[in-house]
Design goal:
The chain is built from 4 helices and 7 strands, in the order E-H-E-E-H-E-H-E-H-E-E. It is of the alpha/beta class. Strand 4 (129-135), helix 3 (137-150) and strand 5 (154-164) form a beta-alpha-beta unit. Helix 3 packs parallel to helix 4. The termini are far apart.
Length: 192
């Protein structure tokens, strides 16, 4: 068994002070860093995803519905697209950018600068099990975990290292994860 940690979208725009801030995002960044420092040997590999928008079309809106359209966020090369400064990045072996010209929630829609997909990278390293953490529980974490399970990886979402946008959408996401037989631990940070 080889286990990988997938850190989803722990970027400035998704943390407090960002253009699409999720309450608890900075705490998630800090928590992931602490776990990597204290118990990082539980993972053989660590990778991360980034929202990386160039022109994602209707994904950006001046009047977002917060379901299919959102305020401008994580523009490629901007400060908002950078990893949050509380996130320790020294263990990250590969970064998978997603959403250049479309909405992309799952890290499995992303690729490295050289064009390698997350699934092929993990398979190439012999990874069998993945643990998913990051932002947001109810959107990109959910989509990444569902795709990981669909790709055949034994998947766990470490909820105490995630932050959700809203209670209702987070609860719905947790139901989807359970229905897909994805294991979860702890509870996500989420506003009531």
């Amino acid at each position: 068994m080889s286990r990988a940690l997938i850190i989803v979208d722990v970027q400035n725009d998704f943390c407090e002070g960002g253009s699409l801030a999720v309450s608890g995002g900075a705490a998630v960044a800090k928590g992931i860093s602490l776990v990597l420092e204290k118990a990082g040997d539980r993972w053989d590999h660590v990778v991360a995803t980034k929202d990386w928008h160039i022109d994602p079309g209707s994904h950006f809106s001046e009047t977002p519905d917060f379901v299919d359209s959102w305020p401008v966020h994580c523009v490629a090369g901007s400060g908002g697209s950078e990893f949050h400064p509380e996130l320790a990045t020294d263990r990250i072996e590969a970064v998978f950018r997603k959403g250049e010209y479309q909405a992309a929630y799952s890290g499995f829609e992303g690729q490295t600068e050289s064009g390698e997909t997350l699934a092929s990278w993990l398979q190439g390293k012999g990874v069998t099990d993945v643990e998913v953490v990051g932002i947001a529980t109810d959107h990109c974490v959910r989509a990444t975990a569902l795709d990981a399970a669909a790709a055949g990886f034994t998947t766990t979402v470490v909820l105490e290292l995630t932050a959700g946008v809203s209670r209702a959408t987070t609860d719905a996401a947790l139901e989807q994860l359970r229905a897909a037989s994805i294991a979860t631990t702890g509870a996500p940070v989420v506003d009531a």
